[in-house]
Amino acid sequence: MINLSGCLHSAEDSDAWIRVDAKTFHANVEEMGDAFILDVRTSEEWEDDGHLEGAFLVQHDEIELELDNLPTDKDTTILLYCRSGNRSQVAAKALVTLGFTDIIELESGINGWKDAGYPVNYGA
Question: How open is the CA angle 56-59-61, to the nearest 5 degrees?
């Protein structure tokens, strides 16, 4: 089991994934049709606060347990977000540890996405 406590985006993993603003993340969502959009919040947040169209929900602390629900190709681009950008850093570190190589994280989380005026979906 991977120990996720205290994982932050440090200098040693600065090349492992990139953090981007909402505008850049939106451009990636629009331009990368084959990317895997990963929401790492809780199911309650997913339902109450909405989610990005086409996103898959895997709670940040269950990444290793949900490996079967992640891309089998470790080079697949993963567009990653949470509520405010904290849990997605933990999830990014876990994904890197599991061998994923192309991770783009929304620095401001879905809060920043919505503040920038980008749409969210509600329901399933």
Answer: 145
Q: How far apart are CA 8 and CA 111, in angstroms?
A: 20
Beta bridge partners of 105: 19, 80
Which residue ranges form the domains of the chain, and what is each CATH number? 13-115 (3.40.250.10)
Q: In the beta sheet, which residues pair with residue 17? A: 103
Q: Of 100, 98, 109, which Cα lies nearest the Cα of 40?
A: 109
Number of other residues whose CB lies within 10 A of the CB of residue 72? 7
DSSP bridge pairs for 80: 38, 105
Residues 22-72 have pLDDT tens digits of: 999 999 999 998 999 999 999 999 999 999 999 999 999 999 999 999 999
In the β-sheet with 78-81, what is the strand arrangement from edge to edge? 17-20, 103-106, 78-81, 36-39, 56-57
